[in-house]
Design a protein that fits this description.
Length: 326
């Protein structure tokens, strides 16, 4: 059988993470999150027919072969198995290559889930695939055994920059066009330390449900920041930088572990050298990647500084493309 080649982007999140956990957005009377697909691509090679089944992760060096499709998840690649099993039509062979490590904060597992489900069904990015995101959310809860947020799936399922409005049983999505100046000043770098957003979100979730005042105030502040971010992204790069900084500080109130020594070092040096405008951790923080906005005209200087600190910036841009077949 002929192999099909698919690509799915990962994402950056500008504001509103954790608010996409039910029933947080319902209890708060509606919320908003802002994120975007970026051109770091998870690659999938899919063969639909043939004897037996095979799941391969080229990056992890895992190659699993089965005479027939297993009824229970294997100890390794259980998330891959769960999505393919849930599709109802698991291919004979799936090979995965990701340029981004797990724990990067770039939504790798969620975006991979979109890629696996869409490629198994033969469905590229679009409203039809986006309408299947609740299936993935429930699979993730089954995988993690905790409530799961679901904003991370939509950039892979739709492409582009999005404002997701959490004011009903399912979110409404609004497409945003980021300001050209913002695109020129946006830098993403990896702290060298992985994180686990699901567990960080779970701790915030429990405290919110239990009525912890500091958690509820921090998430209320993040909701307001996200609303402002949706307005600023197309129009005001300096306001985006300010809002990123505010969101990062609000997340620090959710958990001191959100900010790492590397992040503090970047902020201190950037302010001292005059290129720092604003920064937040990607995902729930505590490691992974950071989203940094530098002052106009200082991108090269900032990237050079990051390299000398052992924090090389990632080469990426916001992309209008979601999951697609090559």
């Amino acid at each position: 059988m002929t192999a099909e080649h698919w690509r799915v982007p990962v994402r950056v999140d500008f504001a509103g993470g954790t608010l996409d956990l039910w029933p947080i957005y319902a209890m708060m009377g509606g919320c908003l999150t802002v994120n975007a697909a970026v051109d770091l691509w998870i690659e999938l090679e899919v063969v639909r027919g043939g004897p037996g089944h095979r799941i391969t992760s080229r990056d992890l060096g895992i190659d699993l072969a089965f005479a027939s499709w297993p009824k229970e998840p294997p100890a390794e690649l259980s998330w891959v198995w769960r999505v393919l099993d849930g599709s109802g039509v698991p291919p004979a062979s799936v090979s995965i290559h990701s340029p981004v490590p797990q724990g990067s904060g770039l939504g790798v597992s969620s975006c991979l889930g979109v890629g696996l489900l869409g490629s198994a069904l033969g469905e590229e990015a679009g409203e039809g695939l986006a309408c299947k995101v609740p299936i993935l959310r429930d699979m993730e809860s089954c995988e993690l055994q905790t409530p799961a947020g679901w904003q991370d799936y939509y950039p892979a399922a739709l492409g582009g920059a999005l404002a997701l409005h959490w004011d009903g049983p399912e979110p409404r999505w609004e497409r945003l066009e980021p300001h050209p100046g913002l695109l020129a000043d946006l830098v993403v770098f990896y702290t060298g330390k992985p994180h686990h957003s699901g567990m960080t979100n779970w701790e915030a979730y429990k405290r919110f449900i239990e009525g912890d005042a500091q958690t509820r105030q921090a998430l209320s502040d993040i909701r307001e920041i996200a609303r402002n971010m949706a307005a600023a992204l197309p129009s005001d790069p300096s306001e985006v930088a300010s809002l990123l900084e505010r969101e990062g500080q609000a997340r620090l109130r959710l958990s001191p572990a959100v900010e790492t020594d590397a992040m503090r070092a970047v902020r201190d040096r950037g302010r001292r050298e005059g290129w720092y405008a604003g920064m937040k951790p990607c995902g729930a923080g505590g490691g992974g990647c950071c989203l940094l906005v530098v002052k106009d005209g200082h991108r090269d200087e900032a990237q050079a500084a990051l390299r000398t600190m052992g924090l090389p910036p990632l080469d990426l841009r916001i992309t209008p493309k979601g999951l697609h077949r090559l």
